[in-house]
Specification:
This protein has one domain. The protein has 4 helices and 11 strands, in the order H-H-H-E-E-E-E-E-E-E-E-E-H-E-E. The radius of gyration is 27 Å and the shape is globular.
Length: 201
């Protein structure tokens, strides 16, 4: 049975996992909104990756449990003390290069899942699934052994969570529903000069 990531690492709480996943979904949506005629699939994909990396770098300054380990194209970050990466693709078909990012966790050697020892080295990643237009349809956060066995996984809720994806600051008072205005003609009054009329504004 696949475990929740927090059962493997206490620092991998659902809130933290979802927060990063929703950042990825939001930034990718903003990237699609910025498409122009000169773009193609390659440029859109490269820019989406760069934008997500830049956003995580900015968020690192204000989120104490988030840090960036490698800001190169490999781009590896940490939630607490757990390294993670992200890639576009199916969770069931991770890119081969993510296995080179497997991290050793000595503390896991004393624990067990499924009554079997936990692998000494795990790789954690966000798999970002999209449709043909590049719209994000699913984000899966998973921990996988070097042999490809999924140890833990969580699906990030990216739909119907607009309040979490985009923070809106509004200091104005709440909207008030007003009754419809009654139709009327402008009033006419006689002017001081004979024969002239003035309309009230």
């Amino acid at each position: 049975m696949i475990k929740n990531p927090s059962e493997v690492h206490a620092c991998l709480t659902n809130d933290r996992i979802d927060h990063i996943g929703q950042i990825i979904a939001r930034v990718r949506a903003e990237n699609l909104d910025a498409i122009e005629d000169r773009d193609n699939g390659w440029s859109i994909g490269c820019r989406a990756h760069a934008w997500v990396c830049s956003e995580i770098l900015q968020q690192e300054e204000s989120i104490p449990w988030l840090s960036v380990v490698d800001s190169s194209l490999r781009f590896i970050s940490k939630i607490g003390d757990v390294e993670f990466s992200f890639y576009k693709g199916m969770a069931e078909k991770p890119k081969k290069n993510i296995f080179t990012r497997a991290q050793s966790y000595p503390e896991l050697r004393q624990t067990s899942l499924f009554d079997l020892p936990v692998p000494k080295r795990l790789v954690w990643a966000y798999a970002v699934e999209t449709d043909l237009e590049g719209v994000t349809t699913n984000i899966e956060f998973f921990g996988m052994s070097e042999s490809g066995e999924v140890i833990a996984s969580r699906t990030v809720p990216i739909f119907n969570v607009s309040n979490n994806l985009i923070a809106i600051s509004n200091s104005e008072s709440e909207a008030v529903e007003l009754p419809p205005a009654s139709p009327s003609l402008p009033k006419i009054k006689k002017g001081k000069v004979s024969g002239s009329v003035e309309r009230d504004e």
